[in-house]
User: What shape does this take?
Amino acid sequence: MHKPTDVHWQALKRVLRYLRGTTSHGILLRPQQSLSIHAFSDADWAGDRDTCLSTTGYIVFLGGNPILWRAAKQRAVARSSTEAEYRALAASSSELVWVTHLLNELGIPITDPPALYCDNVSATYLSSNPVLHSRMKHIAVDLHFVRDLVDKKVLRVSHIASTDQLADGFTKPLHSTRFTCLRDKIRVADGTSILRGRVKETKSAL
Assistant: This one.
């Protein structure tokens, strides 16, 4: 990083404090009766103050267990929040296709199309709208990629309320209460008590 400031230093210390306080945390996987795939896709808009690049975030679930997630800056500046959200939608759609193919190769067929949830109404509408607006032509590849998956019933894109958006924590800083709530919902938990509960005390024969 070129010319770090006190803001960057404070952010680094905050990350280190969080890591120190969550060393025993991990993902709690539970047995599932249903192996349906669903994902949550989100994006901020021009969140990087230096470059105005947006951040893509998504998390993929198999049943109720998270199996894949990512947070990354987009490669180009988005000119609207809808554009940023749709780029994130295209990226997460690609991952869903890959996961579905992988499971099929492993002999785990997925009967229902994966569901992809987005909290941006316009981006959700564009995924099934056959009309290509002139202001969105510069992301035509992403538009047609997602629409093709929806048309072929390979993917279902649905709108979800922002309060239920589980990928929210991948794209923007959140208040501690909201962050902890989302962390719990994606099954990140303190494993100390779980591990201790499985250790049985034995009496020495000596």
Summary: DSSP finds six helices and seven strands in the chain. The radius of gyration is 20 Å. The mean pLDDT is 89. The longest strand covers residues 65-73.
